[in-house]
TrEMBL record:
Dynein heavy chain coiled coil stalk domain mapped to chain residues: 523-624, 696-938
Classification lineage: Eukaryota, Metazoa, Chordata, Craniata, Vertebrata
All copies of domain Dynein heavy chain ATP-binding dynein motor region, residue ranges: 968-1189
Residue span, Dynein heavy chain 3 AAA+ lid domain: 96-183
Matches recorded under SUPFAM superfamilies: P-loop containing nucleoside triphosphate hydrolases
Protein name as annotated: Dynein heavy chain 7, axonemal
Highest taxon above the source species: Eukaryota
Compartmental location: Cytoplasm, Cytoskeleton, Cilium axoneme
One Gene Ontology cellular component: dynein complex
Record organism: Eschrichtius robustus (California gray whale)
Keywords from the UniProt entry: ATP-binding, Cell projection, Cilium, Coiled coil, Cytoplasm, Cytoskeleton, Dynein, Microtubule, Motor protein, Nucleotide-binding
Record-stated family: Belongs to the dynein heavy chain family.
Length: 1252
């Protein structure tokens, strides 16, 4: 339509100034009415020139799409036979497209049953995703065609009839257009020889996700050969997702999940592919989108809705998103749900993005310029010389946004909102591939149950039967919800989340209750065992006490007799010890004398031994190099001579020391030990080190014809030492006389080969006196007989001179030591005799001492035995006393504890069925009224009995999961006493989800406020300006919070809290609320109430909360009205009753606590409880207190019965008034204006009592 006008006057609405619009041409486009498009009035159309564009003819569409397919096959180098398959695909798509438009017509419940050319193109585009290498045969292309038809047309269908119609149409198209047998093409999916069914085609999948490590164009679109391989890939990707994201997804992978996951992955594979996911809340739309995004290596963007989130924040988020996909080229999935669409303008922008890839005028001028400059380098593709206009750059930006952005919109089909959105924003249908999430099929329900229950300890029968029972629970609630809607006009939705809640609650509650019941039973059993042990010990201890008494008396007599023996023998031992001490003193004196002699010997040896060392050293200075001798012989001779001298030295030095250091064993005494501890002789080493001689040559001396006088003098002395006689020779002075000359014998002596050996082996201990006298008189007194002087003549003579002088010193010292040796020998002999006698006496003393020690050890053992017997007798007596106390105090509990243990065993055996039904009540029945709830639980209990699942004869939620003491406290806090209200309290206490209580009469509000008052309860409304601050404080500090008076919708910013989306940050549990991350305390409790009588909560909200119908029951109202009338008529009676109720509750709580304390004390006591005096005292005092409280409670119960009898007189008026209230409350079913509140009725009731 074209509208031309040249001058148009307008006025500015702000200042009324005139605005003239000149030469403007308006072009508009519209579709024909229908499919969400409204008719346009003729008054509007008259301004336009209308041009109608007819729809394409079949031939045109076939030509267009055939050309596209042929071009693709040609560029991908497919064989020629595939071109025929390409034409068949186009013709088949045309047939399905035309038939669907004719037969699948839109209705109010099927408003999305509209088809256009985009659907046609989606099928063709899907078929062109495959590459040549992935096509094994023409059958692969045909299967791909069927797959794409199913994804585009089949996945949006909502009922079985429509789906079967399309399945039949597809079979006919394969037969008519492809000339192939449908069963043969899909033979690999058939079960045996049966025809291919819709169920079989669920396993037909194509995708590019089988190699998750690849990215982008490297990923190949292929047929999935095996669904189990696909499941393994998904498990791997899910693990990777959970490791890289704070918010984990605990998904069970089964075929239903794989089907929808594959569909979403296919949409993301296509450039600009968008999805409309339709399903009830909790069906997995968001979770599967996140997982598919992760598998496709893309980013995900989802707005975080807060209370203050508005249009400005929405537009800013869109700008960020468009910059990310358009400027930076990041492939991104934009996920948004219907609950996040706070304003209709959000959908207008989404509609624009789906249609054009942009939001008109979202960027300001400067922002738009920034965007264009950001994409310029990419548009130029490296060629900086290319110039682009601003319009071209922005168009390039928009095209990148369309290619890289995938919009996924998740809607719920419940209510009118979905239909209205599709009607107002047709792009949600035209530009999106629709995936309708059907309720979970039977196999999905079964696989999930099996997966979650595999860790529970169940019998084979229970494990086999519980799965179909869970499936029955789920399907029966669907039927019950329909009856509930028809009968009372109340909505209740059953989703996959409800089923998961059933399984999770059953797992958690069964484990918890089994542990609690078994612990309680074990406490009773332990208490009974302790009592039985005490009873059995009484008789044994009496016998033991009788047997111990004579043993104790006998032990006392034996101890007294042995004490007398020990006293006598101790005196004898002491006398003998004195005699031995005197002998030891005598021996010590003799040892001291011997030590003195030894010291003198050592002193003299200090001179004798160095003399010997000097002699050896002097000889070592000599070496003979006689001609004709071999070096080896000379060495052997030298070593032999040296060994002989050392043996002499050893005999002198060590002989005496050995005798001193090793006296006979009989001589050992402290004094003798001191005597034998001699030190090495001092001076020997020092003297030897002083003479470090270098050997001289004897041969030189031997060859001297006329030796110096010093040499002759030394050799003469050597001859004297050797006792060699001199020769008489003529006097060299010429006197003619004869003189004695030693030189001749000396030369003979020097010529002797054993000369040095003889000197080393010289018998120095037996040198003749005449020899030493002559040496001392004639030679040592000669001034020339001096080693330094002799050394001038010959170094060899010097060594011999030193040897002679050393022998003289040795001889002189040895003769002094010899007498002392003799005396030392005598002293040692006397000492040995004394020590021998002393050792005999010592042996006698040791013998008697050992005997005495044995007696004392025996006496000690007897004394200990007596003490042990005394202690045993005393302990036995105390045990008897304690056993009497224990049996007397707790003996009366034996039968009650035994009965309680048996009852708990029965409860434990029935827990599987009872907890299963209880989990069903918590997961499904909270929103139902008492009658529907009762009918359903009876049906479930009967089913459990039929399936041989152990359960109670009459199921009671409060008995299975409730605590009587806690329930009594709830009643005192304002919870009505009827079974329905108590069950509601049990559900609140055990549900894994936060409770949303439908509370038109304020019963739940009153109960929560009273029961949580001590825990610093905070109360807020959504209308409060600072409710988010209060909420954050309660979450951080773990205090309870009550959100009251909510409507049918909650603030979207509460969603993370409703889903309990906590995560770890820095080791601390945190939660994100809007843009704020706060610490999360698991002590936090969240209660929600509404005053709406019949609210309609959408599945998206109902699955996140535990809906509870807290409307008052006739029984509960009757009790309240009875209390009011009694309080008015007999106030003292009601006051006394209320006081008794409080006292009774306190008494029962105390009794339970005392019993728990007694049982825990009995269980914690180790070993024999009769030996633990403190435990017996604790038990005794606890039992005394229990008896006192029991007496008080008995009196209170009697009084309460009397009061109840008196109150029963007013029962008819209360019952009649209760019936009256529910009668007038039902008038609202006739006309909504007949609304009466409980507060109004109670006031009317009170006024009628006053006015009678």
């Amino acid at each position: 339509m074209f509208w031309n006008f040249y001058v148009l006057s307008r006025y500015d609405l702000k200042d009324t100034s005139k605005i003239t619009l000149v030469d403007i041409e308006l072009i508009a486009a519209m579709g024909p009415p229908g499919g969400g498009r409204n008719p346009v009035t003729p008054r509007f159309i008259r301004h336009f020139n209308i041009c109608t564009i007819n729809t394409f003819s079949d031939e045109t569409m076939l030509r267009i799409f055939s050309s596209i397919v042929a071009f693709y096959l040609r560029t991908r180098e497919f064989p020629p036979e595939y071109f025929l398959v390409g034409n068949q695909i186009v013709n088949g798509t045309m047939e399905i497209y035309k038939q669907s438009m004719e037969n699948l017509l839109p209705t109010p419940t099927k408003s999305h049953y509209t088809f256009n050319l985009r659907d046609f193109s989606h099928v063709i585009r899907g078929c062109l995703l495959i590459e040549r290498g992935a096509v094994q045969s023409k059958h692969t292309m045909i299967r791909l065609f069927v797959h794409e038809v199913l994804r585009v047309f089949y996945d949006r269908l909502i009922n079985d009839n429509d789906r079967f119609w399309l399945f039949t149409l597809t079979k006919n198209v394969i037969r008519d257009h492809f000339k192939e047998s449908f069963d043969s093409i899909f033979s690999h999916l058939r079960k045996g020889n049966a025809p291919v069914t819709e169920e079989d085609l669920r396993n037909l999948m194509f995708g590019d996700y089988m190699n998750p490590d690849l990215e982008g164009d490297d990923r190949v679109y292929i047929e999935i050969p095996n669904i189990h391989d696909f499941s393994d890939i998904v498990e791997q990707c899910l693990d990777e997702y959970n490791q890289t994201h704070k918010a984990r997804m605990n998904l069970v992978i089964f075929r239903y999940v794989l089907e929808h996951l594959s569909r979403i992955c296919r949409i993301l594979k296509q450039s600009g592919g968008n999805a409309l996911l339709v399903g009830l809340g909790g069906s997995g739309r968001q979770s599967l989108t996140r997982l598919a995004t992760s598998m496709a290596k893309m980013q995900i963007f989802q707005p975080e809705i807060s209370k203050s989130y508005g249009m400005n924040e929405w537009r800013e988020d869109l700008k960020v998103l468009l910059r990310k996909v358009g400027m930076r080229g990041q492939k991104t999935v934009f996920l948004i749900t219907d609950t996040q669409i706070k304003e209709e303008a959000f959908l207008e922008d989404i509609d624009s993005v789906l249609n054009t890839g942009e939001v008109p005028n979202i960027f300001a001028a400067d922002e738009k310029q920034e965007v264009m400059e950001g994409v310029r380098p990419v548009a130029q593709a490296g060629n900086k010389h290319d110039e682009f206009s601003p319009l071209a750059l922005f168009a390039f930006f928009v095209n990148r946004c369309k290619d890289n952005l995938h919009v996924v919109v998740a809607f719920s089909p419940i209510g009118d909102a979905f239909r209205n959105c599709l009607r107002q924003f047709p792009s949600l249908i035209n530009c999106c591939t629709i995936d309708w999430f059907q309720p979970w099929p039977e196999d999905a329900l079964e696989l999930v149950a099996v997966k979650f229950l595999e860790t529970l300890e169940l019998t084979e029968v229970e494990r086999r039967e519980i799965v179909p029972i869970c499936k029955h629970f789920h399907t029966s609630i669907m039927r019950l919800s329909e009856r509930f809607l028809h009968a009372l006009g109340r909505h209740n939705y059953v989703t996959a989340t409800s089923y998961l809640e059933l399984i999770a609650s059953f797992r958690q509650l069964l484990t918890k209750r089994q542990q609690a019941v078994m612990e309680a039973k074990q406490r009773y059993v332990n208490g009974l065992d302790k009592l039985a042990f005490a009873e059995s010990q009484v008789g044994e201890m009496k016998i033991e006490l009788v047997q111990l008494q004579p043993k104790l008396e006998e032990a006392k007599i034996e101890n007294a007799h042995m004490m007398q023996i020990i006293e006598i023998e101790s005196a004898q031992v002491e006398a003998k010890r004195k005699f031995v001490k005197l002998d030891e003193e005598i021996a010590s004196g003799k040892a001291e004398e011997a030590q003195a002699l030894k010291n003198e010997c050592e002193s003299d040896l200090a001179e004798a031994i160095p003399a010997l060392e000097a002699a050896l050293s002097a000889l070592d200075t000599l070496k003979a190099r006689e001609r004709g001798r071999t070096a080896g012989g000379e060495r052997r001779a030298s070593e032999a001579s040296s060994a002989a001298l050392h043996r002499s030295h050893y005999r002198l030095n060590h002989g005496l020391q050995y005798r001193l250091n090793h006296p006979p064993a009989t001589l050992r005494s402290p004094s003798v030990e001191k005597l034998s501890s001699t030190k090495p002789v001092p001076g020997a080493r020092k003297f030897r080190d002083r003479y470090n001689f270098h050997p001289a040559d004897i041969t030189i001396v031997k060859s001297m014809k006329n030796p110096p006088s010093g040499v002759k003098l030394v050799m003469a002395a050597v001859c004297v030492m050797k006792d060699i006689k001199p020769e008489k020779i003529s006097d060299p002075s010429g006197t003619g006389g004869k003189i004695l000359d030693y030189w001749g014998p000396s030369k003979k002596l020097l010529g002797d080969m054993n000369f040095l050996r003889d000197l080393r082996e010289y018998d120095k201990d037996n040198i003749p006196v005449t020899v030493m006298q002559k040496v001392r008189g004639e030679y040592l007194t000669n001034p020339e007989f001096d080693p330094p002087k002799v050394a001038k003549a010959s170094s060899a003579a010097e060594g011999l001179c030193k040897w002679i002088m050393a022998m003289e010193v040795y001889d002189r010292v040895a003769k002094v030591v010899a007498p002392k040796k003799a005396r030392l020998t005598e002293a040692q002999k006397s000492l040995a005799e004394t020590m021998e006698l002393l050792n005999q006496k010592r042996a006698e003393l040791a013998e008697v001492e050992h005997h005495l020690e044995n007696l004392q050890a025996t006496f000690l053992e007897k004394t200990e035995e007596k003490s042990r017997l005394e202690d045993q007798v005393e302990l036995c007596a105390k045990k008897l006393e304690r056993a009497s106390k224990l049996i007397g105090g707790l003996g009366g509990e034996k039968s009650r504890w035994s009965q309680a243990a048996d009852d708990l065993q029965i409860v434990y055996e029935n827990l599987t069925g009872d907890v299963l039904v209880s989990a069903g009540v918590i997961a499904y029945l909270g929103a139902f009224t008492a009658g529907f709830r009762q009918t359903c639980t009876e049906d479930w209990s009967m089913l459990c009995k039929q399936k041989k699942i152990p359960c109670s004869e009459e199921f009671s939620l409060s008995k299975t999961l409730g605590d009587p003491v806690k329930i009594r406290a709830w009643n005192i806090a304002g919870l009505p006493t009827d079974t329905f209200s108590i069950d509601n309290g049990v559900i609140v206490n055990n549900s894994r989800r936060w409770p949303l209580m439908i509370d038109p009469q304020g019963q739940a509000n009153k109960w929560i406020k009273n029961s949580e008052k001590e825990n610093q309860l905070s109360v807020i409304k959504l209308s409060d300006s600072d409710y988010m601050r209060t909420l954050e404080n309660c979450i951080q500090f773990g205090t309870p919070l009550l959100l009251e008076n909510v409507g049918e919708e909650l603030d979207p910013s509460l969603e993370p809290l409703l889903l309990r989306q906590t995560f770890k940050q820095g080791g601390i549990d945190c939660i994100r609320l809007g843009e704020v991350i706060i610490e999360y305390s698991f002590d936090f409790k969240f209660y929600i109430t509404t005053k709406l009588r019949n609210p309609h909560y959408m599945p998206e909200l109902a699955t996140k909360l535990s809906l509870l119908n807290f409307m008052i029951t006739p029984e509960g109202l009757e009790d309240q009205l009875l209390g009011i009338v009694v309080a008015k008529e007999r106030p003292e009676l009601e006051e006394e009753r209320n006081a008794l109720i409080l006292q009774s509750a306190a008494n029962k709580k105390q009794l339970k606590d005392i019993e728990k304390k007694i049982l825990e004390t009995l269980s914690s006591s180790e070993g024999n409880i009769l030996e633990d005096e403190s435990t017996i005292k604790v038990l005794d005092s606890a039992k005394l207190m229990s008896n006192e409280i029991t007496k008080k409670q008995q009196i209170a119960e009697k009084t309460e019965l009397k009061i109840a009898e008196s109150r029963e007189g007013y029962r008819p008026i209360a019952k009649h008034s209760s019936v009256l209230f529910f009668s007038i409350a039902d008038l609202a079913n006739i006309d909504p204006m007949y609304q009466y509140s409980l507060v109004w009725f109670v006031n009317l009731y009170i006024n009628s009592i006053h006015d009678r």
